[in-house]
Amino acid sequence: MAPSAIYDHAEPLSGRALDDISDAIDEVNVLKDQLSSTPAYDAQSQFDAAKDKAQFRQYESACSRVRNFYREQHAKQTVAYNLAARAHFKSASRIRPELTIWEAIEKLDTLVDDSDPDTELSQIQHLLQSAEAIRRDGKPRWMQLTGLIHDLGKLMVFFDGAQGQWDVVGDTFPVGCKFSDKIIYPETFALNPDSKDPIYNSKFGIYEPGCGLDNVMLSWGHDEYLYHVVKDQSTLPKEALAMIRYHSFYPWHKEGAYSELMEESDWDMLKAVKAFNPYDLYSKSDGLPSVEELKPYYLELIDEFFPQRKIKW
């Protein structure tokens, strides 16, 4: 017998009940419209449409502070140093300070990044500029939070283990294989002893083609540090973790270098980092944000993705 033949029909609905159901359906449709109107995380950025992007990352005309920083970074970021830095980070004896995300933001506010030719603003201003640009474009809340925290790895400059700014900030690049000429100031790698090592100075070095970026050792700094801090202490999606881990890897996401090391999943991560990059870079010319006005909104956002208030750094 067909199912309809054994269906026990209920009593006809009253006009009031029908109105209630209709109202409920309308509410659901409104929510659907709101969700569908939220741009995808990788939709084209709009906040920077009228900006002159040629004025950013002008390293040829950068001041001596920036040039000196990269000369030191390129000389000292060796395989040996990177192995030691990672061993220190993972050491059970390392004292891990505990701070909330907002406490970390306030602590970082005294740092001016020696590697950045585009701004001399404090870090809290840059972080809020990035987050607010993402918010203005209507991007997902997890991406807004990523903009707010993406540079918090720079806190390591205040903690035991950092040698200076050269192992904290600046563009990142693989160690253990030939340094690409797509890295800024490539000539300064002549000062790095790995550039004279027959294995480390070969095209693939210690890696295999298609090994995947998870298996590539990038120069130690705030990107890698924050990635390891956040991945086990937040509910941020993998796209956010990629934005944090690779946002300074300009030779890869901007210049197309090292693609031969990528595996299939890395292409999705590249899409995420490219979607994030305009908000990190081009927001630096925006107006100064009001910290006190924005703080309540971002405190709520932090609590949404960081279940435990105190983070082990």
Automatic annotation (TrEMBL):
Q: Give binding positions for Fe cation.
A: 126, 150-151, 222, 247, 280
The organism sits in which domain of life?
Answer: Eukaryota
Assigned EC number: 1.13.99.1
Keyword list (alphabetical) reads: Cytoplasm, Iron, Metal-binding, Oxidoreductase
Catalytic reactions on record: myo-inositol + O2 = D-glucuronate + H2O + H(+)
Cofactor remark: Binds 2 iron ions per subunit.
Q: What is this protein called?
A: Inositol oxygenase
